[in-house]
Amino acid sequence: MKLLSVAVPCYNSQEYMKNCIDSLLEGQDLVEIIIVDDGSKDNTAAIADEYATKYPDIVKAVHQENGGHGEAVNTGLRNATGLYFKVVDSDDWVNKEAYLAILDKLREITGGPQTLDMMISNFVYEKQGAKRKKVMRYKSYMPENKIFTWKEMGRMPVGKYILMHSVIYRTGLLRDCGLELPKHTFYVDNLFVYQPLPHVQTMYYMDVNFYRYFIGREDQSVHEDVMIRRIDQQLFVNRIMIDTIAGAKNIEKNIRRYMLRYLDIIMAVSSIMLIRSGTEENLNKKKDLWKYLKNADIRIYRKLYMGILGRGVNLPGGSGRKIAVEIYKVVQKLYGFN
After folding, report:
1. CA-to-CA distance for 225 and 311, rounded, in angstroms?
2. Phi/psi of residue 109, each to 5°?
3. Over 80: is that where the pLDDT of 159 sits?
4. Quick one: 163 exposed, middle or buried, by C-beta within 10 A (0-12, 13-18, 19+)?
5. Distance between CA atoms of 28 and 242, rounded to whole angstroms?
6. Looking at CB atoms within 10 Å, which of 128, 201, 210, 224 has the fewest?
7. Burial class (CB in 10 A: 0-12, 13-18, 19+), 93
8. DSSP alpha helices (H): ranges in 188-279?
9. pLDDT tens for residues 31-86?
10. Are 5 and 76 spatial neighbours (Cβ–Cβ below 8 Å)?
11. pTM higher than 0.85
C-alpha cells in the first residue's frame, strides 16, 4: 500500500501536464500518481502512457470517456491504493521541499497511535503576470505541529477558507462518506472539500507552501468571464452545498460554523458573478438562489442574508449592485483570486 495517492485529472493537457507529473515524481515510491485521461483529443493519453511505462511502480494511466473534472476525481479515488488522497490539477504543480516534508510527516503520523483525517498546507497563487505571488496560509487560525480538532480551529476572516489545493484527505474517509462528484460540471473542487467535512474529526496543519496553483489562462474555469458563461454550473454546485449543510443532522457545532462560513463565501461569489453579468435573467437567478436557500433552511438563510457578505451582495438597486462589485474587486485584489 502506498502512503499517498495523487489523482491528476487531465483533459487536453499535453502542453503542461509534464511539469505537474515531474513535480509529483519527487515523492518516489511513497506515492502513486494516477493520471486520469478524461477523453482528451490531443496527445495527453500518449504522454500518460509514457509515464506509466517509464515508472510502472509509481504511475498509473487511466483512460475514460469525457466525464469532466469531477468524474476524473471519482476515477482517481476508485483507483487509489494509498492511505491518503490528493488531487493536483494538470496545470498546477507542487514544491519539492514542502512535498517531501509533508510525506515525512504523513509517514510519521501513520506509524503513531492517532488517525489523521485531513492534512492542511498552504498554497500559492501562481498568477500569470503577477510580480508578487499571493500565499494562502493558515498559520494564524490553526495549531501547528500537532493533531488537532475543530474545537482548536480559529475563526478565519472573510475570503479565507480551505480549498482543494490545501487538503490531503484520508482515503478511507472519502470512501466512507460516499463522496461522488457530479459529471460534466465545473467548480466541483468546492464539493470535494465541503461534503466530507462533517466526517473530519482530526486535522494537522503544516506551514509550508506546497501547492502551486496556476491561474491566468483565458480558458481557465476560474477566469471571471468563463465563470459568468458557466454560471449555471456554479449555481448547481452552490445548491448542492446548500443541500449538504441544510440536510445534515447532528453536525458538531464547530464544523457547522466553518461550513456556514464556507457557504457564505460561495453564495457571495455566485451572487457577484450574476451581478457582473449585467443581465436581467441572471439577476433573477440570484433571487432564485437565495430563495432556494430560504426554502432549504430558513435559519441558515437568515444568518447568511443578514451577514456582511449577504447584505453586501443584496444591496438594492443599480447603485447597490455597483457597490457590491467594488467591494468584490477590493477582496479580489487582496487575495489574488480570479
Report:
1. 24
2. -65, -40
3. no
4. middle
5. 40
6. 128
7. buried
8. 189-194, 224-229, 231-246, 253-277
9. 999 999 999 999 999 999 999 999 999 999 999 999 999 999 999 999 999 999 99
10. yes
11. yes
